[in-house]
Amino acid sequence: MRAALYTEFQGSIDIVDLPDPVALPDGVVVRVEATGLCRSDWHGWMGHDPDITLPHVPGHELVGTVVEVGAAVSQWKVGDRVTVPFVAGCGRCEPCLKGDEQVCANQFQPGFTAWGSMAEYVALRYADRNLVRVPDEIDDITAALLGCRFATAYRGVVAQGRVRAGEWTAIHGCGGVGLAAIMIAHAYGARVVAIDPDSRARVLAAAIGADVVMSDLESLPDALRESTDGGPHLSIEAAGDPVAVAASVASLRPRGRHVQIGLLPANHTSIPMGTVIGRELQILGSHGMQAHRYPEMMEMILDGRLQPQHLLTRTITLSEIPQALPEMGHAKEAGVTAIDRMGG
Ligand SMILES: NC(=O)c1ccc[n+]([C@@H]2O[C@H](COP(=O)([O-])OP(=O)(O)OC[C@H]3O[C@@H](n4cnc5c(N)ncnc54)[C@H](O)[C@@H]3O)[C@@H](O)[C@H]2O)c1
Ligand SMILES: [Zn+2]
Ligand SMILES: [Zn+2]
After folding, report:
1. Residue 125 to residues 21, 35, 128, 151: CA-CA distances in angstroms?
2. pLDDT confidence band for 293 (50 / 70 / 90)
3. Which atom, in ligand 1's list, is nearest to the CA of 239?
């Protein structure tokens, strides 16, 4: 198969021929039809993810067709069209048994703990527990976004954030995750204020449902409190910047909820804990979304309340990955990029 491979962190990425993967007993092999280019792929290539061993094939936001099924898999067959949450749970550990595969103790992550989907084929583990059927009405590019950013935003806003109609939700960072969070919060009837220093991102944010947009002003907490009658009820950090974390927590109204989705440098200390105590704030993490929570999101996509395709600003070929992935460090496209021609 053709695949994008790197042999050192921050080194060159090459399109190479590799042996086709083989299905493990609990897994499947999927022919990749499309895959997203996510900020976490860039973090991986930079060397920020201890799960990655070299050489490595990135890619974790995929849709494709099952072409081989492991001997112990009972729920899936060749020809099924599927996506998979980027955190696939083992199904046997304590969190998995409680339905929390997104924090599984033995998690399989394509493109992190194993080779991923920036290739013509990808092997996935724990198939019965984690694959998600993709209806024909959802096209490949839209479906690819459901493996990570859109689903992660859905869990962050709905399950962890407990978004409510009429309440103010602030979204810090309007990249793939943040734009999805804006669309989802808006669909649930929240009033949305979106923050991003990039003017192109703010234009997209306004177009998909933000009521108010702001750049990362130095006086952001004050500006946020002013425009939301006393501070957001819910604030989502989807930037991965300690500055945004601090602004998010500082701006919340009493008993407000901060949900951390963006990945941060190790040992950052930007959460003002005095404020957390004094206002009884809730600080929550959010990590992917488990497969059994996909149906409610799929239903909203099928009836048009959510339109992930509106986040897409660019499609590229597999051959363009060696340039596009490192470029995210300095010249990132606004919106979402997906790879939809794996042979190209
Ligand atoms: N927790 C999870 O399960 C999970 C899943 C997917 C992605 N992530 C992480 O979420 C983050 C967002 O991912 P993405 O793909 O949307 O990234 P992205 O690079 O597409 O978007 C990030 C956006 O944040 C903006 N930004 C930077 N500093 C800011 C600040 N101080 N205030 C407001 N906005 C700021 C940037 O201009 C950019 O538009 C990344 O850290 C990614 O690794 C986490
Ligand atoms: Zn598990
Ligand atoms: Zn991702």
Report:
1. 12, 18, 9, 19
2. very high
3. 24
Given ligand 1 and candidates 261, 286, 325, which is best to mutate, with the most ligand atoms within 8 Å of its CB?
A: 261
Distance from residue 140's CA to the centre of ligand 1 (Å):
23
Other C-beta atoms lying within 10 Å of the C-beta of residue 160: 20
What is the pLDDT at residue 244? 94
Q: Confirm if 111 and 59 have CB atoms less than 8 A apart.
A: yes
pLDDT score of 215: 92
Which of 163, 165, 203 shows the shortest CA–CA distance to 181? 163
| Residue 121: Cβ within 10 Å count | 22
Task: Report the candidate in 285, 3, 311 with the shortest Cα–Cα distance to residue 146.
Answer: 311
pTM of this structure = 0.97
Q: What pLDDT, in 10s, does the model give residues 227-246?
A: 999 999 999 999 999 999 99
For residue 333, what pLDDT is reported?
76
Token pair listed for 292: 């059994």
